[in-house]
Each structure stands twice: as structure tokens, then as C-alpha cells.
Amino acid sequence: MPRVSEEHRERRRQQILDAAQSCFARKGFHETSLQEIFRESGLSAGAVYRYFRSKDELIGAIAARSQPLVAALLEEILDADELPPLDEIVARFATGVTGRMGPSGAVRIAPQGWALATYNRPIHLAISELLDNTRSWWVRVAERLRDDGRLPPDADPYAVAVVLTSIIPGFILQRLVLGDVDAETLRAGIRILLSSEPPPPHAAHPAPGNILNQAL
Amino acid sequence: MPRVSEEHRERRRQQILDAAQSCFARKGFHETSLQEIFRESGLSAGAVYRYFRSKDELIGAIAARSQPLVAALLEEILDADELPPLDEIVARFATGVTGRMGPSGAVRIAPQGWALATYNRPIHLAISELLDNTRSWWVRVAERLRDDGRLPPDADPYAVAVVLTSIIPGFILQRLVLGDVDAETLRAGIRILLSSEPPPPHAAHPAPGNILNQAL
Fold it and tell me: Which is deepest, A156, B20, B30, B215, by most CB within 10 Å?
């Protein structure tokens, strides 16, 4: 019989990840030492090393455990007989995200994961998987909306998903950095845009005269 | 007469910021030493210290120099007699941002600035200013669109600005991490959403039963 049950191991693992998450949120991934994580978790170095060998592994595991939470929220929405209006879907997602922004919430360290993903290969893998899965889910939402006649029949679900996938990171950033946005405001803004006058047929490419491009 | 002209000083300053930007993009803000920045810039430690005393000051200055570029792009759009369609405005912004994502482009290190802003006070100041100014600009766009009758007369420009401010960071993230989105796709997605069926009048709050909230 195993001395340490699987359940016990899993609790330990989560306890270590919670501790790492709190430390990273407080002073940043790079400024946090493994010693501080041992202390925060109340475990010995040896006990922690049994589960994780580096901070990279810790942040990868934190990104990975967000996945089922995001999936559960999103599947719940897709499982409904009738899909809620798009502004409500986004607001639910934003509300879920907001609830995980407390001092030790996973979403508080999301921008650190994004930053690491731009130059650290293993973390890139974890974050790109999360982002890609989230976007695939938005593709399914867009397909449903199109099939239900709530988006035009020739709508490209991928293009819609690119926009919808963009919104949540920018919402997280505004809330963490400016501190003044909430899910209801986001919802109101989306409702207004969905209710606005459709744009006229468009010229093939963005207009020339883009100062920012000329300058660079 | 001053030995070193103001123009020379400014060129030097930009040269140092370019070097820091390349290093940060390649191996990350924390993993970059000041020695590496001296080497990359081709200047001595003493010469660099005359302009910047720390990596924090460097990243703050990098964020600050994005400001006039963003402002120029945005003012150009607002100065037009007729505002372009919203999808084109966002696409122009996204095109501008895409043009600065090269190996040493400022946008490549934007996520590192966002991450630092969540726990480093001086950098928080620089990033929140950039984000707040960008959002104020989107408020002005939303007001113009409303006054031109392209958004409903009772539209809240702030709520619209919260959504529009959200889109670009999420676009940057998808492009840097997944590498497969461009301004034209973003534009197409926005066009579809703007052309979609308006949502029905909505209940006061997001529906209950949010699994993600229940779980936390």
C-alpha cells in the first residue's frame, strides 16, 4: 500500500502552487526565491522538490491548472440549449476572471506568464496551449452564433474568435493596472458595439498614411 | 557653448534605449544585465549611467517613448474630417503595433512592461499612464462615433473605450505567442461583430451558475 495517497499528493501539489502564486503576485516571478516559496508553503525544500524542480515548472503548472477552470466555464456556456447573447458570454468570462484577481489569485500573475511566454520556451508552451485552447473555444461559440443566425451566414468564426480572444487579456490588464473596469462595463460596451450601425463595405486594405508605420 | 549638444544627447539616449529593448526582447528584462546593455549599445558603463541609472529607468523610458508614437497615430485618425469605420481604426492601430514587433521592436517587450506594472511601482506609473492615455483617446473616438450617429445616442463612450482598449493587448499577445494573427483578420472579425444582430434587451446582471466563480 502506498505510504502517501494520490489524494494527499494532489493536495500537496496544489498547496505548493498556491504558495508560489501568492509569492509571484506579491513580488514577481523573478524576484521570488525558491526559499520564499518553501516558507510560504510551510513545507521543506525536500518536500517541494518532490513535486517541482524549478520556478519554470511552477509557473507552467499554474498555467496548466487554469485550463480546466476556463474549460468548465466555457463548456457550461456551450452546453446550454440556447447560447446566451454574446455580451453576456463575455461578461461571464470577465466575471470569472475578476473573481480570480485577489492578492493570491492566478489571474493576478497572468501578465507575468504572458511576458515569460515571449522569451522562455517551456513557459511559451504552457501559455500558448492555454491561449490556443481558449481561442478554439471561441471559434466554437462563433460557429454556434453563425448557425443560429446571430452572425451573418458567411461570417468567419476564426476572425470573430481572434477578436473575442483579444478582449479578455486587455480587460485583465486594465483591471490590474488601472483598477477601474468591471465585467458590467465591458458588457455594456460590447452591447453598444453590437447595436451600432454596420460599417460600409470596405476597401481592400487599411488606408495609407499610417504615421506610426512611416515613423518606423 | 555646451560640449555635447542637446541633439547628440538625445541620439545617445535613443541608442541606449534601442540597445536595452533588443536585450529585453531577446532574453527578458530580468535576465538581462546592465553589462549586456553596455555591450549592445557600444557605450561604456559611465556613458550609459549619465542617462539611466537602472533597468527600471530604462523600461520606464521605453514605455514613455511609445507614447508620442501612439498619440501621433491616434491623432491622425481623430484629425480626419470624417472618422474612418471603427474596424478600420482598429486595423490601423493593429498594423502600427505589428510594425513594431520585430526582434528589437518595442511591442515585443510590451508584455514584460505589463507584467512589471503589476508589482513594480515606478513601472506601474509609466504603464498605467500609457494605458490611461490610450483609453482616453478611445473615449474621444467613441464620442465622435456617437455624435456622428454611428453609435446609439445614449451610448456610454467610456464603456465602448473599455472594450476597444482591451482589443490591442490581446491582439499583441496572440500575435507574439501564437504568431498567427494579423490586422486584417482582426478587422474582419470586428466587421462581423459590428454587422451582427443586436442583442436582446438584457437582464440586470450576468446569469448565475458561473462555475468558475462557484469553484473559487
Answer: B20
